[in-house]
Amino acid sequence: MTTTTQPRLQPSGSHALAGGRLDGRIDAVVHAGFAVLMVASSVRYVMRHSPADNLWTIALAASVCGLYVVTAVLTTRRQPAPARTQPASARRLWLPWMVALIAAWAVLVIAAPSFAWCSFAIFFLTRTAFHGVAAHLAGGATAGATAVGLFRMSDWTDVAMLLGPLAAGGLLTVIYDKIERDAALQRKLFDDVTKAQEQLTASERAAGIAAERERVSREIHDTVTQGLASSLLLLEAAHRSWPAPEAHHDVSKATGLLRRNLADTRSLVHELSAPGLETGPLPEALEHAARQYVDSVRVQVTGEAVPIPAEVRHALLRVTQSAVANIKLHAHAQHASVTLGYLPDAVTLDVFDDGRGFDPGAVPPPSEAGGYGLRAMRQRVEQLGGELSVESTPGEGTIIAAQLPLPTRGSEDARKESP
């Protein structure tokens, strides 16, 4: 059975891991930027203010740094999901620290506007910790405190100092919200594609199981079922004519057929291979299969013999078995023949009998009583790219003709040379 391998997407776990590594690198840049700006702002403040002012301001700045480190560590350790989906216990762990950081930062930047540049790192940390309305409030508080601090530094005269941080905060909020929406949409699309791929895999698996069941049913029909049906006919004939000599002959033939049927069953158990299929001349294998049901069958060969792929040999053998078994069971024919024909790019098989014939258009659908033979033969041939036709008229016999394509010499050599 041939299956088509679909290209596989990266598993969602690996996708999340790669996203986590990217987020980690961004966080590292933000934290490093905060550290550099805090050091630069502290140096600037110390150089421009008296020691008395420096003491309390630097102490507050150190407190902000400590709160920042604790909050950054706690928000990094939380699960990689939006804050609104985090467990309440996880939010309670870092939420007070984040609130304390924003409050301390607001006091620091209003008291010492030299630290205003650090607002960017605080803003991004709030967006990492919060989502939705809470993120907007935290970001607004950060931008508002920065605006008040800068406006105070200008002696409450420079409106640009007031509006600049607010505008920058609003712009960053809009951009960040857009990035979050795009990321959420990408995650949803990835999840949808992953789910669709899983459904496709399940469908392929179900189709594979159905195809395998169909294949096994054909094998059983063409070997076990046909053999048992023919054996039953022989035993019934022997029962009617017992103890005439021909009855002993029928019993002996039925016994031989049952033994071959047992061998076929064992072959099905062992990889569903047919005796003599992979080795030995194909005409002899076909004649052996046909004579299990009709002793007088002869196989005629036309054309120049060429190598036949194993799957084509197998199909020809099973079609022969099924067709000749139908002759034995239904046709009441005086003569039957099998013709194997070799063409340049195909092989043909014709099974003829001069029995009572039937109407192919009136064949009943498969049921517990039978009716699988023609359907199974057609499926075998068509799965290999071939065609099967049935020509029959009541009272005028039947011809079952199959034609299967053969690989060209060039493609066969290429297949042998390919790794």
Keywords summarizing the entry:
419 residues; alpha+beta; five-stranded mixed sheet; disordered N terminus; disordered C terminus
Q: Secondary-structure blueprint of this entry?
A:
Blueprint: H1 12-48, H2 51-77, H3 88-111, H4 119-129, H5 133-153, H6 159-241, H7 245-269, H8 282-290, E1 298-302, H9 310-331, E2 336-342, E3 346-353, H10 373-383, E4 387-392, E5 398-405, H11 409-417
Parallel strand pairs: 1-2
Antiparallel strand pairs: 2-3, 3-5, 4-5
Helix pairs in contact: 1-2, 1-4, 2-3, 2-4, 3-4, 3-5, 4-5, 5-6, 6-7, 6-9, 6-10, 8-9, 9-10
Can you characterise this structure?
There is one protein chain. Among the domains are: 12-157, no CATH class; 286-419, 2-Layer Sandwich (Heat Shock Protein 90), CATH 3.30.565. Helix content is 67%, strand content 8%. It contains eleven helices and five strands; from the N terminus they run ααααααααβαββαββα. It has a five-stranded mixed sheet, covered by helices on one side. The chain starts with 11 loop residues before the first helix and ends with a helix. Residues 1-18, 79-85, 270-277 and 410-419 have low confidence and may be disordered.
